Here is the input.
Amino acid sequence: MGATYFFRDTQTLKVIPCILIPQILEDEGCKNKRSINIWSAGCANGSEPYTLAIILKELLDEEIFSRIQIYATDIDPNNKFENIIKNGSYPEDALQKIPEKMFVNNFIKDTNIQGNYLISERLKGHVKYIRHNLLSLKPIIERPFDVILCKNVLLHFTEKQSTDIINMFYYSLSDSGFFITEQTQKLPVSSCEKFEQSIGSARIYKKIVTNSTGVKIN
Ligand SMILES: C[S@@+](CC[C@H](N)C(=O)[O-])C[C@H]1O[C@@H](n2cnc3c(N)ncnc32)[C@H](O)[C@@H]1O
Here is the structure.
């Protein structure tokens, strides 16, 4: 199972509701009521997408939160993550880093598995799991994503594979979309013309859109 845990790198995740989503809504015009699509690529057992759902629920206005759809994908070599994420049942030990108030508001005891807690149905409704191999280079949905998170995954790939995956992310993002990776992951050189670093303290990149003569238009 891929190493992951709840409330990992929350500093970066909090940038999504505090800075990125307000910017996306402003770029697209406030009247646009479409869903806000986020992709957690290489989500392992769901700790990352559920942490994000908890943070978004806490920090976003109710109406904006209702429009959030998080797609969580993984190659899942042992075919275990779909059940874990669908059931949303996690051992108490795995939930220790969640701040008390957020834990109480979003989890109840799992009466079927001693020592486990269930994430709320409300949050489960915002996270959809799809088994997917990033190396297939196939986007998972036709609608564009506003934010793609791919943290602690690209380090497993060659530079060429990472570049191809990041290209696929580029074409899966809306024109005002963002790509996020982990602090220690540098963007491959050939991807640098497609994204600009948006937040100095984190690996958060805004998609660059150019016209036919290569002039930046967003
Ligand atoms: C270390 S975990 C990262 C989990 C989470 N993103 C985080 O940062 O906590 C890496 C995950 O990448 C997944 N992975 C590895 N190769 C993949 C591929 N080709 N396509 C999709 N997921 C892949 C693994 O199965 C694993 O769950």
Q: What stands out?
A: The beta strands are 36-41, 68-74, 89-91, 107-109, 116-119, 127-131, 145-149, 173-180, 195-199, 204-207. The chain has seven helices and ten strands. Residues 137 and 168 are 6 Å apart (CA to CA). The chain has a mean pLDDT of 94.
